Amino acid sequence: MSRFAVTLASQLAAALPATVPFIEAAVNAEPGLLTDQVSLATQLDGLILSPFLSVVNEGILGGTPAKGPFLIMIDGLDECEDKQGVEGFIDHILNFFEEHPTIPLRVFIASRVEQHIRERLEVDGVLLDNLDSHATDKDIQKFLQVSFQTAAKRDRLIRAYIRTRGTWPTISDMDKLIDHIGGSFVLASTIFKFIIQPASEEDPTTPIERLPLTLKMNGLDSLYAQTLSRSQNIPHFRNIISTIALLKAPLPIVGISDLLGIEAFEVVRVL
């Protein structure tokens, strides 16, 4: 959480330039706002909430093209290991809205169901929703349609196939693919990359031939196994992947090449 308020402040300044003078004034008055020398609550007040409130009170919002309240979106709050910091952030934001119930600002938090987060949010003034009940098939369908259309513009083979056979993937193939993906954007993205990847000596198949293969794969495990099997004949593959997997601390590409005594471009090729 040490960079959380500073990150939000930079995005606030970009989205609403009228807040910049107020943010600058706060930093000049208290340089510790940019470090962890002050509490998170003090950072939030000085860098975000007070500047926004000042802009609202002085009526400067009237010159912005935005309609309705401004929105701060925070994704994956459960991934923050500083649970106490997360609790402090939620508590402070809720107190702010209690004091300023009509301010044109909202905070949208996406998170897994973690006890320390849920306990803080099960209060009046917070709208909770379970996204597990949200069907993502239409979103994934749109993502895949646009992705395949973009791939067709770049791949002569796909364009030639479409000219001869018509739409690719077919409506039937797309329906099967979406059903197989089962609402997972991670799986959708990974499967798409697998389908359109360039052919190699180890795997000369085309995107048209790979699409039906993906329908036989059982989720990410088999997809990763297929990708790894394609790659194992690349020079230094096992050494590089093993090194990355076993390193106690991550190394940059140049560091890995120095450690293994190979060229940096060979590391890049494997990755």
From TrEMBL:
All copies of domain Nephrocystin 3-like N-terminal, residue ranges: 7-112
Signal sequence residues: 1-25
Domain of life: Eukaryota
Keywords: Repeat, Signal
InterPro entries referenced in this protein's UniProt entry, alphabetically: NPHP3-like_N
Keyword Repeat: yes
The keyword Signal belongs to this UniProt entry's keyword annotation: yes
Protein name from the UniProt record: Nephrocystin 3-like N-terminal domain-containing protein
